[in-house]
Amino acid sequence: MTYAVDIYNKEGKVISQVELNATLFSDEKINKTLIQEFYLLQMANARSTIASTKGRGQVSGSGRKLYKQKGTGSGRVGDKNSPLRRHGGIAFGPTAERNFSKTMPKKARKLALNSIITLKAQEHALAGLSLPELQPKTKDALAILNALQLNGQKILLVMKSKNEGIEKSFRNIEKVKYLLLDYLNPKDLLNAEKVLFLEDALTALNEA
To answer: The domain 4-47+100-207 belongs to what CATH superfamily?
Structure first.
């Protein structure tokens, strides 16, 4: 099945349609396993090490044996840094050197993104936007969203290249996020209720 994306102008009227490339975006190409794998990769690569412990060789304290080996009833204790003693080192605890990063082939990542976009097309959550030069005014951006009946929804605005007027107009609007086409990712796509592609970004996506 092929999907068509409506292209709107800033008044909220449909001015054209773009058919998604069936070789990239089709029901048969949807792979939910890859979507999950890419999402977990993104979350793991964004993870930072918080828990970190010191071993017996890293805690502050003397390495002198606390008691003599025989005659005190407390033999074989070792030094005060032993993991068996209070304030001693931690045995096998987490360290700052842990690496949570994952890898995934580029083609698999691309297929996962195409699968998410196809699912969004199934849900009628994709739209195109034809915008001329936009002056940096939040009021104008809000008017566009109102015309599209999208005010208050979680919007992902996708641009092909940086556009200062569009970025400054939309950046202060709650629940609206913009990013470049090259930075599309599973988290932002799945989180958005509506994905708005600028017309040139949609054309580039369709030709990829």
So the answer is: Ribosomal protein L4/L1 (3.40.1370.10)
